[in-house]
Amino acid sequence: MVRLGFIIALLALVGALLSGLAAYRVHDQELAIENIALGRAVDIHASLVQERLTERELLARVAAGLFRAPTVMKANMLQPLRASIYAFKTDFAIAAWIARLQPNELAAASAELASAGYRNPTIRSYNDDRLDARALGQPLDVLMDVEPRNSVTEGFAGRALNFSPVTGPTLVRAVNEGKPVASSPTPLQQPDGPLGLVLVTPVVPEGDPAPAGFVSFSYELGPLMLANDEMSLFSVALKDPRVADGEIVADDDGRVTARPLVANGPALAVLRTVSFGGRDWSLGYYPKINTELRAQRIAIIVGGVGLALTAIVCGLFGYVSYANLRLRREVETRIGFERRLTAVIDELNHRVKNILAVIQSIVTRTLRHGSDVDSARDLLIGRIHAMSNVVSLLSESQWQGVQLKGLFEARAIPHADRIALEGPDIIVSARAAQSLSLLFFELASHSDEGLSLVGKHPHIVAHWEITGSEPDGLFNFRWEEFNTSEATRRPDSDFGLVLLDRVAPEALGGTAKRYFTDVSYVYELTAPVETVIDMTERDRTEALAKPIR
């Protein structure tokens, strides 16, 4: 059977190796083709995104250079730029003029906004809270003009953006760097508006290092990322600088949302870096088609065909060979069964002979000449019953031993309810169980003679313990009948004396002694643990009980 399995395994191994090699080659080829196509598409997309971002920075620089107005407090500063802005055909959401005003100029700026027709010309905080001009000690960056001008954008005019959590730091960076600066992603026009970027460019008059104001353009992220191509091989994600483990993703319709990175989500195919507004932005590309999975599926199909052919060949070969081996195995099993049956019969004969010898000895000793018939009959029945009980217990355990406490059951010995058991729960061998069962019966059968010294039946304690370590451990047993004396206790019979003093100790390879104290009768037995447990006999019995394979 082993040789047949080896041959079939060898055939299967060769077939599996060939199938796996073919699948591996197909997988590598498909994966390489898909990755090349994806890499080219990503490079083209990143180049287009960078080109578009560069055009928007150029627009911001051109717009900042076109300002030639003598004052920055006008509410129509974008009027000369409108034609130039729309000539670029850009997709900005809002263009704005942000003037840098001194505290004493706020009243005039408010009047300018009112004359331009803005519905709320008051100079106020970015969140529409009132400002106290007397408490201000620094210039304010006030939004004075917007494009396009509609019902939503008109409400932005007059806001001071210095303390805006997004635009404020961007204005400071623009002043420090003196070039177009992009903000972090932020909602545009309203708190739940689309995510976008604000590109701020400082306007510096000639001969004055301090900026007079800022031109800003707000762009939605979707068009900047070129994310609305339904036919692309990937979807685009932007690393969210606001969150350490976040990203901004766009769907096929161009809608952009922020989300945390998924721990077990799809892996990025490739990362690209683009520059915009003095910052580097990381673009991640998620393939819409799992190239690895696609290559694996094709490889699985190729490998599956090869394995199927291998399985057919191995199955036919194995079926024919196994039919011959099964017939041979059945013959060997029958021979083994007959041998095991012979061994079991021999073992049974051996045990029956031992039991019959013990019973013969019990009967001979109990019914010896001169014995009282009634008393001898009771003792004979009790001793045979004790032997029957231990044989039943051994049969239940397949002659592998019984628990020592089981030998004290009421059906085995008299007055079991008066016996207190003290000792570990150990399992004794079949040979030791037979001797100990007769020993316990003999001790218990002589403890019922009348009343004790205090007018009650004797109280019995059976105590045993294991001392020392294997293989030199000792089994110590002590039987003590309290409240009894040599005058109140029935004398042991001849058979009992032989059993207590010689048969039981010799059967266990130990020693025994019995004596009276002032208030009790004591019997002590000491024997090696190895004879009480007898692992050799247990192993042999367990081997006979194993099923035939």
TrEMBL record:
Residue span, CHASE domain: 142-221
Membrane-spanning segments: 298-320
Keywords: ATP-binding, Kinase, Membrane, Nucleotide-binding, Phosphoprotein, Transferase, Transmembrane, Transmembrane helix
Catalytic reaction annotation: ATP + protein L-histidine = ADP + protein N-phospho-L-histidine
Keyword Transferase among record annotations: yes
Example GO molecular function: protein histidine kinase activity
EC class: transferase
Its EC number(s): 2.7.13.3
Pfam hit, one: HWE_HK
Protein name: histidine kinase
Organism the protein comes from: Tardiphaga robiniae
